[in-house]
Structures are given as C-alpha cells and as structure tokens.
Amino acid sequence: MADADFSFDLAGLSHALELLGAVTEGAEAALPLPSTLPEVGCGTCAALDRLAPHVIGGAARLGEATAFAHMDPPTPWITWATTLWNASVNQNLLHPATAPVARDIEQRVIDWIVPLFAMGGGHMVPGSTLANLTALWAARECAGVQAVAYGESAHLSVGKAAHILGLAAHPLPCRPSGALVPEALPVDLRRTALVLTAGTTSTGAVDDLSLCGRAAWTHVDAAWAGPLRFSHRHAPVLAGIERADSVAISAHKWLFQPKESALILFRDAARAHSAIAFGGAYLAAPNVGVLGSHGAAAVPLLATLLAWGREGTAARIDACMALAARLADLVSSCAQLELLAPPQTGVVVWRPKSAALTDRLFAAMPAGSCSLTTLAGERWIRNVAANPNFAIAAFAAALEDALRTLGAS
Ligand SMILES: *Cc1c(COP(=O)(O)O)cnc(C)c1O
C-alpha cells in the first residue's frame, strides 16, 4: 500500500485552505508547541489544526489596510497556489532531469524581465543579499576587481559580500537623503566595483545612475526600486541603469512574491555565468552561481506576470507610489511634522518637528503602520509603500489623533 501522506488529498488540502481563510486568533491563544521532538506524531490534520494559530494567527498582517512599514509586501493568491504546486512537485533546478520544465520557466521569466533593464540574462536567487554577492563574485572574476566602493547608506549585504569575497570595502559619504555624493568617488576605479543603490533601504534614495560605467564593474542594487522599470510612468527614476554590468532585484519586495525570490541580471550574462560556473561528474549542466539545490521560485513569479502582464504589475506599483506621494503631501501640509525629503521610490521618512517626540508618536500609531530608522544618529519615522491596499485616509485620521494626544500631554 502506498503511503497516503505522499498522495493528493483534496479533503486534507481543503482543510488547510479553510484554516488559512478562517484563523484569526493570535498565537497567544494557541496551545504551545511541544518543546522537544514528539516521539509519536499527532497526524496530518491534527498537526495543521495545532499549527494554524501560530503560523497564520501569529503572523504580521502585511496586507492589512494599516500595513505601510516595511519592504515586505502582501502576496497575490496566485503565488499561494503556485507555491503549493511547487512544494508538491518539488523540482530541483540544479539538475535538468529533476526540473525539465522549471528550468525553462526560470529562463522564460528572466527573458521577460531583462529588456526592462537592457540586461542580457541572469538567474534567480533567494534574495538580493545573494544577488549582490553573486554580482560582486562575477565582477571579481570578469573584471579583476579588488575593491568595492559604495555609499554608506547601501545595504549591509554589500559590505558582507566584499568581506566574503576578500575585496576591500570602501564606504563613501552620502547626502542626508541617502544618495551617494558623486564627488566622493575615488578617481581611479580601474580595479574597483562600484555599487550604486536604486532605492536605499532606509530612505529609498536613488544614487546617481549616470555613474554607471565609471568603474571596472558597476553593479546596481535595485533590490527595492528595480520593479519601477515595469511602470512607464516611473521607469525614468532608474534611467542609466541600462549601462550597469549587473542588477539585483528582490521579487519578494516590490514584485509581490513570496520569499525567497530575487534576480541577478547581467549585461553580458554568458560571460558572467561562465565565470561563476562549476562542473561536477554527476551534473549534466554546469552549476551556475552560489546555490546548489534550489526550487522553482520562478513559477509564482511567472504566474503573477502572466496573470497581470506588465500593465497590471505597473498598476500595483503605481498605486503604491501614489500612496507614498499622498503621505508625503500629508506630512508636508502638517505644521507639526517635517519630511526628510520628497520620496523618490515609495519610501517616506518624516518626524515631528519636535524631534524628541518621535518615539512617542511612533508608539501612538497603529501597529505595523510605521517603522523607525536612524539617520546621522537621529530617529525618523519611516513608511514603505509595499502594500497597494494601504488605507491612507484611516492613517491620516490615526495620525491626527496621535498628534492631538501628544499635544495634549
Ligand atoms: C532588501 C535589500 C537588500 C537585501 O535583499 P534581500 O532580498 O533581503 O536579501 C539589498 N539591498 C537593498 C537596497 C535592499 O533594500
């Protein structure tokens, strides 16, 4: 008799879906999980019932109308369905034999996206941390770079990649808004990879992308703002990116994908890929990049783009940008508040003019609506437009209430 736990079980899966739709109780109401490995299992449906209040009930609500704090978006349900398919067929993209179609799907979705960046090809990785590492690895192999220069507001993964690769790290000064000061660039960049950020993590600033091509290798870390290239309206924010040697994009940020989903794109992909490829006796195709066995994150991404098209994808990103612009207007028009800078890529950074009140105002806002960031040693409130369902009117009302309470106290 076949083990039924490995078979298609519509009733069991329907139960899992019912839990997904119905569980709202937080983890505090749930039975605690065993502290040690259970000797005897409780069975599949009982395990789901036991876990749902933790995994679903205890989760941060990233798609809630109040969520506007982080670069983590809600995901469209087509990605839930295709992630289930992925888990079920469990393809391994390391081997053509264990992923006869999934490898082509990844190639297809890369082919769809590269023209937006004028890149030649690339591959998927679990995040832009890995995309940045992969890019700088290729830079070291292809261009012989020995150092990495980047704005000090670049993501920590850039310094981390330099460290792993044994490259000298040269952080450079940035403007208060977060963008690299171009005049601070070293004159001789013949042995240096220059990393420009398109959408810094703290403030969403875009470095001057006309600097692409100034160094032996230019990598654009577009982890956050890369998807603006899908939008006719906002693509020009990243003008110049087409002259980069490599581009990192986190699809699990502004392409609304489940983690872990990101892309590393190369202008000369054949050259870059061959520089970071390894063969092995048991491999039918060379292993390109950092990962060994890995799954088909391309399937939910391709499914989303198939369902929405460029236009539908851009519509969601444009909606987020419009929300950020409205929030910036709201802050600018309030006499008690100060805006750091006009938002370039959907990240809005602001605080009370009495800066000492920042933490208290933050604490008075709905949970999950704002985050905090520290710039030049000072605290600021930060919002990130990753949620197209964010309700700005309710946020404005909550902000007004919070300011009134602070003013009265
Ligand atoms: C989020 C982010 C990263 C890291 O990407 P992960 O997908 O979290 O690994 C790198 N650079 C920037 C600018 C980011 O915002």
Automatic annotation (TrEMBL):
Cytoplasm is among the record's keywords: no
Superkingdom, natural source: Bacteria
A molecular function GO annotation: sphinganine-1-phosphate aldolase activity
Protein known as: Aspartate aminotransferase family protein
Record-linked PANTHER family: PTHR42735, SPHINGOSINE-1-PHOSPHATE LYASE 1 (PTHR42735:SF6)
Keyword Transferase attributed: yes
Requisite cofactors: pyridoxal 5'-phosphate
